[in-house]
Amino acid sequence: MKTGTLYIVPTPIGNLNDITLRALEVLRSVDVIAAEDTRHSGVLLNHFGIESTLWAVHEHNERQKSEAIIQRIQEGQSIALISDAGTPLISDPGYPLVNACRNAGVPVVALPGACAAITALSASGLPTDRFLFCGFLSPKQQARLTALQALEDETATLVFYEAPRRILDTLAAVSEALGPERYVVIGREITKQFETYLTGTVTEVQEKVAADTNQQRGEMVLMIAGAPANEHNIPAEALQLLNLLKSEVPPKKAAKLVASHYNLRANDLYKHII
Ligand code: SAM
User: Fold this and answer.
1) 90, 129, 206, 265: least surrounded by Cβ within 10 Å?
2) Ligand 1 site, residue 115, Cβ cutoff 6 A
3) Which architecture characterizes domain 6-110 according to CATH?
4) Distance, CA 86 to ligand 1 centroid (Å)?
5) How many Cβ atoms from other residues are within 10 Å of residue 130's Cβ?
6) What CATH number does the domain located at 116-224 have?
7) What's one GO-annotated cellular component (predicted)?
8) How far is CA 231 from the centre of its chain?
């Protein structure tokens, strides 16, 4: 018997016109649409006149539902997985299902489409050759700070999803962990009526967000410039000490102190600072 396929289908992150022709074709043709929230997706599917059967598959039941989905696909049916918005599995349910499908040898086809992280990054003006998608930071203050501190020397552009009610606390944590001068970009309400991009140092963006309560509403992607490249392969501990010292003493002095402590070239450390 011919097996079916699991399709991963992105849906719009705001502007309904961002659904692709292929997504509509697949959603119309499948036997079942597995949706994170059937009521929420029902509105979208209604809008496009799609009447395929809906199943609720969310983070609390997807492990159990995976078995039933795989069985249906092995029987020849095709199933589309959608989330509330954007690309399923990207800070959304779907990983256990896709993993189980791959382990069972069930065909998985992903359609390209809307994703807030990629859309925001492409408009940010930050380097896109290397980026690290970090999803949501912890809502707990200490865990959030520790996670950011661990990224201090990461040179790739950092991309986070953040809730509007936490943005000011998160910017304060970014300032503490990565320094107030680190360049950040917030992409907000992307593809929607009040789409905005705020850019500047952490301090500048903190001021802009604090001064305008609209900037504390809606959906947002926080992007942070990576740490300066470590061209001279300076060991992580030396960099940490250098980062501490450079705010206390002049750059030349900081470079000299760290160089003598770690037996490194002061000139390399100085170039790194500036
Ligand atoms: N799977 C989705 C995707 O592909 O982008 C992300 C789902 S995650 C649960 C929702 C988060 O994505 C929001 O809290 C926000 O950080 C970000 N997001 C979603 N839509 C957005 C938009 N239109 N503008 C800015 N950020 C958005």
Assistant:
1) 129
2) yes
3) 3-Layer(aba) Sandwich (3.40)
4) 7
5) 10
6) 3.30.950.10
7) cytoplasm
8) 27
